[in-house]
Amino acid sequence: MKLNKTTLYLAVALASSYSTTVMANDISTALANGKATVDLNLRYESVDQDNALKKASALTLRTRLSYASKAVNGFSSLVEFEDSRNVLGINDYKNTLGRNNDYSVIADPETTELDQMLLQYKQANFTAKLGRQVITMDNHRFVGHVGWRQDRQTFDGISFDYQASEKLSLKYAYITQRNRIFADAKDIDSKDHLINASYKTGAGTVTAYSYLLEIDNDIDNALDTYGIRFNGASKFDSQKFTYSFDYALQDTESAGTSFSSHYLSAELGTHVSGLGLKVGYELLGSDEGMYGFSTPLATLHKFNGWSDQFLTTPKEGLTDLYASLSGKVLEGKWAVIYHNFNADKASDTVDDFGSEINAVYTKKFSKHYTAGIKYSAYSAGDVATGKVDTDKLWLWISAKF
């Protein structure tokens, strides 16, 4: 449970400055009158792949305990611990730390971590956070918390959020450590700059972003992404439509070689007779079949199918043509999604990356309890892709107090 040294030094310095500007009794009152929360998630997951690996199954309980202080002169603090444990001995799976290598992977290792520890300053339309924190940008395609996994992703660093006007918002974050979903052992020291600016128009929101990522080591590994996003909703002949468009360019250094690639996504949605309909296309481009567009800080489970076949973009790139249907039944929500995957830069042996069907049903039983069932079935394409047919099933119940 380590915090990056630079972040700690900054936190201590800012905390020292803060403590000299407010009265001790104010701080005591703020801490005593803070809010504690408990977030529990009990989940069963199974993975069945068409290969030599054994079918995996896991029953895990994630417990998240948080305490947020009241604000004093704009300053407040948050401390949060997160624990993931196997339950009832159902742990026949390879976790992210190399256990049970003859089983398929379920990315929920047993771990106890400091999930967040931050000092926040908030005044009017300005917010600053220093320390370990959750950081997300837009739809999580480039920066997310990977909240689906039991050990979610957080970051060490400093972030600023400024609502410059009713229409204009500005965000910046500097990250010194990526606390990933694989427990402390696989966290990464980094020097990442995240820049995001959005402006609301009558037709939707325009967002420009620059994500300048670098792992903190002695090897050139810069991953720079520059893009623009537009999303909104409008009515045509009394029918409401939602839409989004995203385009980005990426330059990277890898083993002394430079690569360039691009990203494109477009999505259109509407509702008809109580059913939600969406169609979309996403392209993770390839640099001549040698490098695929990368989004290492994303909530990857949200994109390209729930079986997680494409957590790393193939060097041939990836296209994803998808459609979804959603609705409500028995006071719960359901959705079915279909994906068709292909290479951006096909070769003689790699073109068809397969297809996938996803289905989910969730229901809230009160403001505290939620239960759900979720299923994904991936059908592999060309043998040379290295993919195999994969079925995954999840059952869960969560509680928040």
Question: If you had to describe this structure to a student in words, what would you say it looks like?
Answer:
Strand 2 and strand 3 (75-92) form a beta hairpin. The chain has helices at 5-19, 24-32; strands spanning 35-49, 56-68, 75-92, 111-123, 126-133, 154-163, 168-179, 188-200, 205-213, 223-236, 239-254, 257-272, 275-284, 318-329, 332-342, 352-364, 369-379, 390-400. 6% of the residues lie in helices and 56% in strands. It is globular, with a radius of gyration of 22 Å. The protein has an 18-stranded antiparallel barrel. It is mainly beta and 401 residues long. It is built from 2 helices and 18 strands. The longest helix has 15 residues, at 5-19.
Number of strands: 18
Major sheet attributes: 18 strands, antiparallel, barrel
**Unreliable residue runs:** 19-23
Estimated radius of gyration: 22 Å
Element pattern in H and E: HHEEEEEEEEEEEEEEEEEE
Helicity level: under 10%
Report the portion of residues in β strands. Answer: over 45%
Give average pLDDT, whole number.
93
Structural class by helix and strand composition: mainly beta
End-to-end distance, in Å?
Answer: 25 Å
Q: Estimate the global geometry from the Cα principal axes.
A: globular
Q: Figure out the total of helices.
A: 2
Secondary structure elements and pairings:
Elements lengths: L4 H15 L4 H9 L2 E15 L6 E13 L6 E18 L18 E13 L2 E8 L20 E10 L4 E12 L8 E13 L4 E9 L9 E14 L2 E16 L2 E16 L2 E10 L33 E12 L2 E11 L9 E13 L4 E11 L10 E11 L1
Antiparallel strand pairs: 1-2, 1-18, 2-3, 3-4, 4-5, 5-6, 6-7, 7-8, 8-9, 9-10, 10-11, 11-12, 12-13, 13-14, 14-15, 15-16, 16-17, 17-18
